[in-house]
Design a protein that fits this description.
By secondary structure, this protein is mostly helical. The protein has one domain. It is built from ten helices and no strands.
Amino acid sequence: MSAAVLNGFFTSLALILAIGAQNAFVLRQGILRRHVFWVVLACALSDALLISAGVAGFAGVVTAFPALPRLMALAGAGFLLLYGLLKFRAAWRGGDAQTVAGQGTSLRAALATTLALTWLNPHVYLDTLGLIGAVSVQYDSIRDKTGFAGGAIAASFLFFFALGFGARYLAPLMKNPRTWQILDVLIGVLMLYLAIGLLSEL
């Protein structure tokens, strides 16, 4: 079982390390020190649900509904385009720099954005339901499958909590409004790049 746990842990970690919309948002919240615990918990719990479903064989749902990936890609691309444009607007206005001194976004808004970036991103389903689910097929026993899923979920929790709470050490660099503007532009470019990538796969 220990081999299955380690395999699940490193498989999940390798997939989650890729820079994406969700990670960029967690990094931003960590720098702002706004609702960090709840944001990273929402990310980790979402991953836990998706990983569990993938190991349990949720891929069969996609086989039964072949149009599902296309619909998710369209919804995800639309959200990423909107979020990217909002980041460009924030960079233009210096909005996120002002958030450091102000109250910033509410918990409800932060969680809504977190869940949208997670559940409207088709690549999340590819990684969790698809790839992690496919790797878990090599294990026949419930014990090994559970160990594999547990290792994958542990990697997700470790990564998101490290990213969210580790980002605060970047806060001194973010006191300069110009740095915030650069970060917002980079996030905006990333969102548009990811959206275009999703649309090109249709």
